[in-house]
């Protein structure tokens, strides 16, 4: 009898605990002043910004209706870190798993939260919109949270630009920005503001969920005279590890326990600081440190705020490589399949600086890759149908996959894999700008950790490498990309087509009617190969491809350095004023013509190469590569 009651109660509990959350969100521009020094509009939902923190439990259903109320632009929403088992079409990246949602349309993100808990976030995956504010925190609460705490608090970090993404992007991806220098940030935010106040009570344990919702810079985080005990990283519980400082890249999450003091006679500085090594230039007026406040005593706080807290070194942050998952999950078996990706940044024939994985700069196909899978039949296992510029790798079901990433660039990059967490099995040290890049050596490496750290976003150090390992147990089309929005726009992405047959055969994975309508409205076919051919999937004529390369021996930096050196040096300042009144690209054309460089055909008079590279080096600025 007792057992029966128990079983019934358990069954009932399981049954009722799966809730359905229905949200309707209307994208709207909202007047805001996040950093307190500049009024601008931010993208909110229903005329409100910052966006709400969404809370669910595992197994719950989410029905989020996204109403695109932008005047003209498309949008999409990604739930960062969610596995989306059997619901790949709800993952969010446009032209990877869905058609863009055009202005005036409503898309229903309808999915069940998988077997996951912890700290996540959601953000637009379209056109830098999340940098304009379309981002929020997503928490999967856990009834069986393994650590004791009294109160839970979320904290988001990000950087802030005064200009809109749509204005920053064209000048970033321009031949007049040949080094690919990212726009310099105007501020860093702490919980979507600055100088923030966190009121705490004494003698308590807080669970602080820290989420970097930024699009560019990593941040250091520390609290005056308080330690933080890491217990979760990107939704993976860890064995506790106590530190005084965190380094958190964009898209990463850390949940930490913080024990408050027993006395209320003092308040403390809660510092965030930009990793300024990621900035090309550091303007004098940029506040690289943010001082926020952990307030125990408001009376005292109103009298005097704590001063900025200084640390001797920024190198003492917790190295996430050494964290151990709480469940002691051991290293997976050796890889069945190893994908090696070389990261480079370089200019193409149009003088614009692009980013490459294995010499391919990602260009979106004409048909979303998932839709190609669903319409390709037997051809779905053939990488060719996905196009030559999408960097697609087809994975077999349940195989163990290693991604070896060698970074030839001198910058730090946070890479994110959709649909999975991965084991972090190797990561090399930073190599200074004047050293040669350090590649991963499969026949000579440190022993892999027995219990590797698992997460979904991982940084690679400058001119170094990492190796990650995961099981291909989640059929779907999963984007793997640098989360720095600028670098994604430069093409730093690959697409993993995981177990295509299983996707095709799963009734849940078929496109919803709403999804097909969205495609029709935006004029994107929902069937066909990368070039939108439905008859012959191997016919790629008309596919989208990257800009052509410059001829060998000719550096694109040369071209633009040449333009600037000519304009500034040879023609003099008066010429800048003169040319400045005309379309600036005209200047380049005229200079190129004078020097016999054919920009359109990318042909070049060999005699000029020497001169061009000379001017290039004499003028070279600090660059990210
Ligand atoms: C947001 O706006 C939509 C559309 O008007 C409405 O249906 C919904 O109830 C609103 N949601 C909230 C949370 O206010
Ligand atoms: C969405 O917000 C805009 C701007 O406030 C408003 O004009 C529009 O009616 C809203 N749409 C819906 C469906 O509520
Ligand atoms: C933060 O403090 C600075 C300097 O004191 C001030 O200019 C700015 O407006 C403040 N920002 C906010 C959001 O309070
Ligand atoms: C919306 O997406 C479609 C299909 O990718 C594209 O052709 C169109 O230019 C996009 N609209 C805007 C305003 O970017
Ligand atoms: C969401 O998906 C589930 C499962 O396919 C379905 O039963 C439900 O009707 C969908 N919700 C809406 C509002 O269409
Ligand atoms: C950050 O903002 C959220 C939402 O407004 C709030 O609940 C939370 O307490 C804030 N966190 C801190 C550390 O102040
Ligand atoms: C606060 O007091 C409790 C017991 O009274 C003690 O266990 C704890 O260590 C103290 N905390 C601090 C930060 O001193
Ligand atoms: C701290 O809290 C514990 C129980 O939560 C209590 O026993 C203790 O007296 C408190 N200590 C102080 C200094 O408030
Ligand atoms: C807050 O600080 C003031 C000034 O130091 C002090 O007089 C007061 O007792 C403190 N209040 C509490 C609750 O500790
Ligand atoms: C920012 O913080 C770092 C670390 O405490 C410190 O070395 C540096 O001087 C601070 N910068 C400013 C402008 O206060
Ligand atoms: C904690 O992190 C440090 C590196 O920062 C590492 O050496 C140590 O092994 C870790 N300990 C645990 C229990 O995770
Ligand atoms: C993981 O291993 C540690 C010892 O390293 C042990 O204390 C802990 O109980 C283990 N956790 C689980 C969930 O097995
Ligand atoms: Cu990057």
From TrEMBL:
Keywords per UniProt: Cell membrane, Copper, Glycoprotein, Ion transport, Iron, Iron transport, Membrane, Metal-binding, Oxidoreductase, Repeat, Signal, Transmembrane, Transmembrane helix, Transport
Transmembrane segments: 558-580
GO cellular component, one term: high-affinity iron permease complex
Gene Ontology molecular function terms on file: copper ion binding; ferroxidase activity
Biased composition (Polar residues): 614-625
Plastocyanin-like domain sequence ranges: 27-143, 151-298, 362-500
Main localisation: membrane
Compartment list: Cell membrane
InterPro entries in alphabetical order: Cu-oxidase-like_N, Cu-oxidase_2nd, Cu-oxidase_C, Cu-oxidase_fam, Cu_oxidase_CS, Cu_oxidase_Cu_BS, Cupredoxin, CuRO_2_Fet3-like
Domain of life: Eukaryota
Pfam family, one: Cu-oxidase_2
Membrane topology, as annotated: Single-pass membrane protein
PROSITE patterns, per database record: MULTICOPPER_OXIDASE1, MULTICOPPER_OXIDASE2
Named cofactor requirement(s): Cu cation
Signal peptide limits: 1-18
Gene3D superfamilies: Cupredoxins - blue copper proteins (2.60.40.420)
Keyword GTP-binding assigned: no
Family the UniProt entry places it in: Belongs to the multicopper oxidase family.
Protein name per Swiss-Prot or TrEMBL: FET3
Organism: Candida oxycetoniae
